[in-house]
């Protein structure tokens, strides 16, 4: 027996009684090997607390919740709980509202006085299955996007070799030679990526470029290569996008692309300065050795 967990959000306790009765009275030919467990909240704030503490498969939400703002509510729920199927449960027969709810990501739309046991069970099962299939599709798309991004960055890394870095390449990768240091830099880069996202969204200034410059110099001191930068970026990107909804995951990919290219630029700049300084030192020594 498979149990689906449903969270109903409505200000009317009668809605809960009706939904619970429909699901319990549904014939076995409809439910098959399924059962439904329904929890109830009268406010969205309480529902969000419940969703944060307990697993639910579907959110059955009435847009009459006292603190609900309809479309904003649906969008917030989608962003905060991307795994959750959402079915709107309302008295309104407004087709425009139905379309709007589906456009922002709801998997279903039920009018209260039109449902019965069969329709409710069918709608919840369909919503859950659609959400699962959508997640599989999105994960596959995201995986392909990440693979393409990594291949592109590795190609860039192979072309950002200055004369001095070419002499240093051949050393083992940073993650292999200094795994603890590598993980510390990964953590720093992950924090910078979050700050960069906040900077873009909230229009604040965290001086990300200066912090990336310092990181580039740190990597240069460690004789890291652009391939090490790609390794750091790849690990952080995978961690950030693993449990994110598709929109947020795409934002990480886009923002991360700018960051990693900027960091590569600072690393290359460090090596150029290092090479110029080394060349000047050699010229001075040669001059002193050969002057009359």
UniProtKB/TrEMBL annotation:
SMART domains the UniProt entry points to: REC
One Pfam family named in its UniProt record: Response_reg
Domain of life per record: Bacteria
Response regulatory domain residues: 5-127
Protein name in the entry: Response regulator
């Amino acid at each position: 027996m498979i149990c689906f967990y449903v969270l109903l959000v409505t200000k009317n306790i009668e809605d809960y009684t009706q939904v619970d009765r429909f699901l319990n009275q549904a014939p076995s030919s409809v439910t098959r090997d399924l059962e439904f467990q329904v929890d109830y909240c009268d406010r969205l704030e309480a529902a969000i607390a419940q969703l944060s503490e307990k697993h639910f498969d579907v959110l059955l939400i009435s847009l009459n919740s006292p603190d609900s703002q309809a479309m904003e509510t649906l969008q917030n729920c989608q962003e905060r709980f991307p795994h959750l199927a959402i079915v709107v449960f309302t008295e309104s027969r407004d087709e425009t509202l139905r379309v709007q709810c589906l456009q922002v990501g709801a998997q279903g739309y039920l009018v209260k006085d039109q449902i019965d046991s069969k329709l409710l069970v069918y709608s919840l099962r369909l919503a859950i299955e659609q959400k699962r299939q959508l997640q599989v599709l999105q994960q596959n798309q995201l995986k392909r996007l990440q693979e393409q991004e990594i291949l592109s960055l590795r190609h860039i890394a192979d072309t950002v070799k200055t004369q001095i870095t070419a002499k240093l390449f051949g050393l083992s990768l940073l993650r292999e030679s200094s795994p603890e240091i590598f993980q510390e830099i990964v953590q720093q880069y992950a924090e910078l990526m979050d700050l960069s996202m906040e900077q873009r969204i909230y229009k604040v200034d965290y001086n990300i470029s200066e912090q990336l410059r310092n990181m580039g110099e740190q990597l240069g001191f460690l004789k890291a290569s652009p391939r090490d930068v790609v390794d750091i970026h790849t690990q952080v990107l995978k961690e950030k996008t693993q449990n994110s909804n598709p929109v947020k995951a795409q934002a990480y990919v886009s923002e991360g692309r700018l960051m990693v290219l900027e960091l590569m630029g600072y690393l290359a700049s460090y090596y150029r300065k290092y090479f110029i300084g080394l060349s000047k030192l050699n010229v001075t020594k040669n001059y002193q050795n050969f002057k009359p």
